[in-house]
Write a structure and sequence with these properties.
277 residues, 6-stranded mixed sheet, 4-stranded antiparallel sheet, 9 helices, globular
């Protein structure tokens, strides 16, 4: 048996034990932020399955990178885990609550911060107003549309969030005056004002140049670590997966193919999960 085959077999042996655990605590007694068991998902009755019996448990305060080639199912899994895409079969629990009809209840959604590749800022509004939009969905959220009608403590929290991502000095700038990296930092600040227990990011650095992407991920991950917020993100960048996640979950053909502490992996070992769907 050649060395390449032996290395692949060694890596394949490091698989997660996804046996269902009772309640909302992990095997070491940690509280689970998110869990799913035997989840299946397709996008049409005639289409093939995108997720094939996925089971996963993520502990409170953990940081997890979901990786895989295009079509592996990682973005579908991420969105299914937080109720953006209802699953066909299986159970999903978020922050101790099971999804009902594939959807999260509003009080649970308020505890989650979302950051996507397309930052979704309102271009004609200021960075400050865009950050205050993170309060939409909360009581009195009609006042979150613009900083001028927002309560003073919301404005203060938004300014603090901008300071946290290094953009306090750009609070008054319109979104269309920001660079791509600055816009993504504003999107992170918008998620932070929700004071989330769980942060979800789908390819947050994919549209940025390598240096800016690394800087944005550094900001994102360090803020989550300092606050003890659970962080789950998808990425096509092996360096981002290894550097900013404690744990890496690889999907292949809609199944969990690897679930390993990032400290135990190398870029070489991850290569095949980025190139084989």
């Amino acid at each position: 048996m050649n060395d390449a085959v032996m290395e692949r077999d060694r890596l394949d042996c490091r698989m997660v034990n996804t046996a269902k655990r009772d309640g909302d605590t992990g095997s070491m007694g940690e509280t689970l932020s998110l869990s799913c068991y035997d989840v299946f998902k397709s996008y049409s009755a005639k289409g093939g399955l995108v997720l094939h019996g996925v089971s996963l448990e993520i502990d409170e305060g953990d940081s997890v990178a979901l990786i895989g080639a295009n079509g592996s199912g990682k973005s579908t899994l991420l969105k299914s885990l937080v109720g953006l895409h209802p699953v066909d079969k299986g159970k999903v629990r978020v922050l101790g609550r099971e999804l009902q009809d594939g959807r999260l209840e509003q009080d649970v959604r308020r505890q989650i911060g979302f950051v996507f590749q397309n930052h979704g800022l309102v271009q004609r509004l200021s960075a400050l107003s865009n950050v205050i939009h993170g309060r939409l969905g909360f009581p009195g959220s009609w006042r979150a549309w613009h900083q001028s009608i927002a309560p003073e403590h919301w404005r203060q929290e938004a300014l603090e969030a901008l300071e946290a991502v290094g953009l306090g000095h750009r609070a008054a700038a319109r979104a269309d005056q920001l660079s791509g990296g600055q816009a993504q930092r504003v999107a992170i600040a918008r998620a932070l004002v929700r004071k989330p227990k769980l942060m979800i990011a789908d390819e947050p650095a994919a549209s940025l140049d390598p240096k800016t992407g690394m800087d944005v991920m550094e900001t994102f991950a360090s803020i989550a670590a300092r606050s003890g917020t659970t962080l789950i993100y998808t990425t096509h960048d092996m360096a981002h997966a290894l550097r900013f996640a404690k744990r890496i979950v690889a999907l292949k053909s809609g199944r969990v193919a690897l679930d390993v502490a990032s400290a135990n992996l190398t870029e070489q070992e991850l290569q095949r999960f980025f190139h084989e769907a």
